[in-house]
Amino acid sequence: MPQGAILLHVDNQAERIYLWALVDRERPSELRTIRIVGTGHEVEIEDTHHPKHIGSLLMLDGRFVWHVFEMLK
Question: Is residue 1 part of a domain?
């Protein structure tokens, strides 16, 4: 993802998870870690990372709820 990209929204489209971001395609790329976790499951956290909630979404007519986190250093 381009450096400095701003994560805007996460949602379900046709039973797939999509993440939208505001990006400057001229910027060099950087690696960012995104975790998707179902309700009731633990978020695995490394000692050097902290989860920032991006959003939650429903899938399969609301039978599953997913929570999307960016793992910040």
Answer: no
Number of domains observed in the structure of the chain? 1
Contact of 36 with 21, CB cutoff 8 Å = no
- CA distance linking residue 22 with residue 31, whole number of Å: 16
CA–CA distances in Å: residue 57 to residues 3, 9, 25, 39: 26, 10, 27, 10
Range of the domain at 32: 6-72
In a domain, residue 61? The reply is yes
Q: How far apart are CA 1 and CA 5, in angstroms?
A: 7
pTM for this entry? 0.84
pLDDT in tens, the chain (73 residues): 999 999 999 999 999 999 999 999 999 999 999 999 999 888 777 777 888 999 999 998 878 999 999 999 8
